Amino acid sequence: MTALLEQLIEALRVLPGVGRKSAQRMAYHVLERGRDGGRQLAAVLAEAVERIGHCSQCRDFSETPVCATCASASRDRQQLCVVESPADRLAIETATGYRGLYYVLQGRLSPLDGIGPRELGLDALATRLASGEVAELIVATSATVEGEATAHYLAQLARQHGARPSRLAQGLPLGGELEYVDRGTLSHAFGSRGEMRE
């Protein structure tokens, strides 16, 4: 195996769920049958890495300083839905009729992994809540141990700033990730959310 082929295989392994064998199959496929597709993938990937950043208001991926959702005048600015990832935001947006705004944590509290409030941008969220514009903070974190700890922290933060915290209703599988939940279950859970109690 050439050194460059080995580098290609190792580079493909950065993708989630791609082990050595899968990366090797992908590399061989691109080199044997998909060189044009490989060139296109390389060009688009390079451009995306350079041009896609984060929205200054919600922290979602965006090519502009403020994403289209945050810039929209038709969104309800009194509702703010906090999600762990852009994939979770997309799942809620496509499965529900939610018309408020979002805040994307880009993770969840996990002290053992060195992920605390600062890494999740919770200082910026606190500033946003302090402005008084948000009446309801919808906590849409996953039903994992870290997700529940994050939800508890967010509920306390909302109460400190006079916003009503709510949580997605039960129906989401315990230990499940939002991006893998079917649309019907997610839509029902979102529509049946309830206020979080202390």
Give a quick set of tags describing it.
198 residues; alpha/beta; single chain; 8 helices; 5-stranded mixed beta sheet; Helicase, Ruva Protein, domain 3; Dna Topoisomerase Vi A Subunit, Chain: A, domain 2
How many structural domains does the protein architecture include?
A: 2
Shape: elongated
Number of helices: 8
Let me know the average pLDDT: 91
State Rg. Answer: 20 Å
CATH topology of the largest domain: Dna Topoisomerase Vi A Subunit, Chain: A, domain 2
Q: Structural class from helices and strands?
A: alpha/beta
Which sequence of strands runs across the widest sheet?
Answer: 4-3-5-6-7
Strand content: 5-15%
Verbal overview:
The protein is an alpha/beta fold. The protein has two domains: 3-51, Helicase, Ruva Protein, domain 3 (Orthogonal Bundle); 61-195, 3-Layer(aba) Sandwich (Dna Topoisomerase Vi A Subunit, Chain: A, domain 2). It has eight helices and seven strands. The strands form two sheets. It has a five-stranded mixed sheet with strand order 4-3-5-6-7. Strands 1-2 form a two-stranded antiparallel ribbon. The longest helix has 17 residues, at 35-51. The radius of gyration is 20 Å and the shape is elongated. The termini are far apart.
